[in-house]
Amino acid sequence: YKGGFPARYGGRLSSVIDIRMKEGNKKELRGSLGIGLIASRLMLEGPINKKKDKGSWMISGRRTYIDILAAPLIKASLQGDGGAGYYFYDLNTKANYQLGKKDHIYLSAYTGQDRFYFNFSEAQSTKFKGSIDWGNFTGLLRWNHVFSSKVFGNLSATQSRYQFSVFNKITSKDFNNKESSFSALYASKIRDWALKYDIDYVPNTKHYIKTGISSTFHRFVPGALQVKNTDFPSDNIDTAFNIVNAPELDLYVEDDIELTAKWKANIGLHLSGFKTKQNWYASWQPRVSTRYLITPMLSAKASFASMAQFIHLLTNNGIGLPTDLWVPVTDRIKPQQSHQVAVGLAQSLANDYEISVEGYYKWMKNIIDYKDGVSFLNTNQSWEDKVEMGKGWSYGGELFIQKKSGRLTGMMGYTLSWTNRQFPTINFGKRYPYKYDRRHDFKIAGVYHVSKKIELSADWVYGTGNAISMPLFRYNTASGYNPGSNFGGDIFYYGDRNNFRMRAYHRMDLGINFIKAKKNGGERIWNISVYNAYSRRNPYFIYSDYNYTQQKYNFRQISLFPILPSFSYNLKF
Fold it and tell me: How far is residue 263 from each of residues 206, 210, 289, 301, 495, measured CA to CA in Å?
């Protein structure tokens, strides 16, 4: 959901993704297997008790080893003086069992971890290495009870965890070959425990009413920092920021209503509250979305949504490893709020094509950003002292075309958008583009079915580069200062906030599948694919180092993956 949020969703300003797990096969053991050069995966599902036909289970997992395959290619692209890698894994599991005619229980869990790392050397005098790790876990226990043919309810207990860490280390040698190093490790965590009860009521064919209440206990660990400086051991840091415990309460009601044969609407209200040490923040969030059939093949839609979010994203606007940190609402930092309107048209053509166009406008308040010249690594200040509250705007339009049948199927989407921020003292009070402001976003993908046994696929994506702050010039104020030191001294002048655009991101992927149906109802697929077919060096981030020989700073772009050919064997059984 990018707009027209139903009232049952809360706590987000941008968008909501609703993901549902497979239920599992109650009749027999089934599965799928994929073994490839870049990743492997396995999914199994089956009945808990085949004779009773009352329950099922499902488990799936995957693991990439793309970092191993890409290592020699990345090293070659860096002229042999560094390397980079990325991998992730995840595991999903779910079980359900029917206790009786009216009761069903569900138990599910997900865990996953991502890691990016790299190292780079500059003229044998400076070495830079770093890594970013992030991961999630969530577990759910749900009880479904059917009160009648028109009313049923769900009681859910959930626990989730998010953790993030960023590490970087700079080692350099001066003219006397003396080595010094500076390293920093930053980690943050969020844990949630929640209890929720939802009721669905269907009084007749023209109404579908949903209502619910939930309580969440948040535990925020905004950060723990370790800093080691070999030149100045007295500056070493090993500290943890204040842990924040906060309860949140949510209540909603919504109705999917058929007003006429051509006009439907979803009308609702979401209420939420968040408790800090001294304050109770309450929010009323009305929601409405409508759809009107102009003709059987042409429809118009419009929506309005008011949203609130009790957690803030702090992004690193400058160069260096990207550090997106999540911090909670406090007595001093208010919740983010937004209002969004959207209108659009959707047209179906001969049951083969769908075309839609949509425009939106969102205005936000109480968003935060780092003040000029501050760093999250500075522990002499609370993070609340480093930020400022302001307002923002996001608006644009989207065109989407889809072909759903025939030998050639596919889709194309293009979004033109603007996302700006404004704060009283940041950037001299002037508006500036947000880091993730993406002017152009284009995607096209297609699948051509040569026959029942062979299909070809291709996709291409393009996106405007992130906006970051780059220095325009530098100077120093002390005579005898050692230029290029990693520990301060050079003064950089940046001009406007986010005054530079990283290179645009674009990439093409190609693939071919050889399909063979099995007698037992299964399927075998051999896949040959090429990721990043023309080996575009897309930017992940930019960092700087000082070249003592040339006596100047160099700015380096770190990219993730060059061209990656691969093949895999996939089996459904």
Answer: 11, 20, 11, 10, 52
